[in-house]
Amino acid sequence: MEVLVYGAGALGSLIGGLLARAHDVTLVGRDPHMRRIRDDGLRIGGELDAHVRPRALTDGTHRSADLALVTTKAYDTDAAARDLATGEYDAVCSLQNGLTEERLVAALDPPVLAGTASYGARFLEPGRVRCTGVGEVVVGTLSGGASALATRVEGACDAAEIEAVAADDMPRRRYEKLAVNAGINGVSALARVANGETLTGPGGDVSREAAREVAAVARAEGVDLRDAETVAAVEGVARDTAANRSSMCEDVTHGRRTEVDAIYGSVVERADEHGVAVPTCRMLAALIRAWEVGEGVRGD
Ligand code: KPL
């Protein structure tokens, strides 16, 4: 299969690199990472080990592939969609944080699948990423139900020995993933602690409440997500990734813009549409945005 991975940061490079063990992969990312991959290939270390030679480009215009995986930061979704709209793809699948798929649907003709990837990835240096946890890739349609395309993506992942599931309950899984992000990322970023401590430290109640608020928004949107299962999902991810630092914690540590809008912003926006109270997510959104303004890294 020909796969374009748009957004070769840590996770995109890891997933793209693993796919390159079985498929014809093109990564789209930034120099000097792309240049180094062109010169020396991509090295994956940590829990998995590989040295692969995918194509590495700095722009994705006018390409074609069977599948385009979008792995950019959520705030780069519109730019990614503009680039991808100039190419030809049988399907597009987001593996991003936040509810980005609707924006891809609005900008692109091919079918858009929703996806999650729970592999842990860390960027080490140009040309090198570390796998900090073997997880799974889950893909499915935005409206749920069986999908031949999702099954094809699952098969492509299987061929490359990536754990994958074609799920027919993607609406629920999307909200569960959003709840995990809302539960872990804000507290870990504000307290600068690893995922494990987010739930066990003094911020644990804030984390759990943020996750329950996401479940309430999901229910208002017709998605059956119970509070207890949502909190259990957040606790499970925090336990399984205890030593890792969330992407938002990494962003604030390195003085970078965060995905606050895609995570807490979309929760607050949808909550307001349905008249659901989400004071914890609203507060976390405000605090992280205030940090971004102070650092001068907000995009608006
Ligand atoms: O997706 C994540 C992130 O760091 O952005 C996890 C590891 C699930 C924490 O929310």
UniProtKB/TrEMBL annotation:
User: What are the entry keywords?
Assistant: Coenzyme A biosynthesis, NADP, Oxidoreductase
The enzyme's E.C. designation? 1.1.1.169
**InterPro entries (alphabetical):** 6-PGluconate_DH-like_C_sf, 6PGD_dom2, ApbA, Ketopantoate_reductase, KPA_reductase, KPR_N, NAD(P)-bd_dom_sf
Any one GO MF annotation of this record: NADP binding
The answer to whether keyword S-adenosyl-L-methionine applies is no
Example of a GO cellular component annotation carried by this entry = cytoplasm
Q: Does the keyword Oxidoreductase apply?
A: yes
> In which pathway is this protein known to take part?
Cofactor biosynthesis; coenzyme A biosynthesis
Q: Known catalysed reaction(s)?
A: (R)-pantoate + NAD(+) = 2-dehydropantoate + NADH + H(+); (R)-pantoate + NADP(+) = 2-dehydropantoate + NADPH + H(+)
Task: Tell me which residues make up the Ketopantoate reductase C-terminal domain.
Answer: 171-290
Q: Where is the signal peptide?
A: none
Q: Which Pfam families match?
A: ApbA, ApbA_C
Domain Ketopantoate reductase N-terminal: residue ranges: 3-143
GO biological process terms, alphabetically, are:
coenzyme A biosynthetic process; pantothenate biosynthetic process
Family according to the record: Belongs to the ketopantoate reductase family.
This chain's function reads: Catalyzes the NADPH-dependent reduction of ketopantoate into pantoic acid.
Q: What is this protein called?
A: 2-dehydropantoate 2-reductase
Taxonomic source organism = Halorubrum alkaliphilum
